[in-house]
Amino acid sequence: MTRGQKAAIILVAFLVAVILCLISGYSGYVRGRGEGYQSGVVAGAGSGYSLRDPTYHEIRQFLAEDRTDANKYVEGEYICSDFAADVNNNAEAQGIRCALVEIKYTGGSGHAVVAFQTVDRGLTFIEPQYDEEVSIELGRSYAELNHYKKPTFDDTVMRYLVIW
């Protein structure tokens, strides 16, 4: 056998080995991807929240049963954002989609409420400290718009952010 023939045989054997490795690796990749994807779907999406937009009646019923409004406002300890977070968490635990709403006033302070995208009345803002429906309008006093006592600071709504 000549040197050229030996080199050709070695080259063919090397190419066959490379092709077999590629085929083996690809089939392992495909099998692993399929199994991993399926188990990931079950572990992830199969065990998460399944939230839905409620009717207006359902949010009124939820708020009547939710006891967050019975909590006491304590400056620096349990404030408006705590009320909003608790109502949000309680709603989502019952499968109801609820948003946190951050309100910024021109005077530099702010406030937090919640919102529900109702299927029959659209976006509905709720003051979680009182379970009351409220309105938010840019350029208007939050207290005045909702018939609350005027605070000592400027509560003109500069912007608000609805966080789902």
Q: How would you characterize this protein structure?
A:
- With 164 residues, this protein is α+β, with helices and mostly antiparallel strands.
- The protein folds into 2 domains: 3-47; 56-163, Beta Polymerase, domain 2, CATH 3.30.460.
- The chain is built from 4 helices and 5 strands.
- The protein has helices at 3-43, 56-65, 80-93, 142-145, and strands at 99-105, 110-118, 122-127, 132-134, 157-163.
- Strands 4-3-2-1-5 form a 5-stranded antiparallel beta sheet, with helices on one face.
- The radius of gyration is 30 Å and the shape is elongated.
- 16% of the residues are buried.
- The mean pLDDT is 89.
How would you describe this structure in keywords?
42% helix; elongated; 2 domains; 164 residues; Beta Polymerase, domain 2; five-stranded antiparallel sheet; 4 helices; alpha+beta
Q: Provide the low-confidence segments as ranges.
A: none
What's the helical proportion of residues?
40-55%
Mean pLDDT: 89
The CATH architecture of the largest domain can be named as 2-Layer Sandwich
Query: What's the quaternary structure here?
Result: single chain
Instruction: Give the strand content.
Output: 15-25%
The sequence of SSEs as H and E is: HHHEEEEHE
Query: What is the number of strand segments?
Result: 5
Q: What does the main sheet amount to? A: 5 strands, antiparallel
The helix-and-strand class reads alpha+beta
Report the end-to-end length measured between terminal Cα atoms.
Answer: 76 Å
For this structure, the CATH topology of the largest domain is Beta Polymerase, domain 2
Question: How would you describe the shape?
Answer: elongated
* Arrangement of strands in the largest sheet: 4-3-2-1-5
Helix segment tally:
4
What is the CATH top level name of the largest domain? Alpha Beta
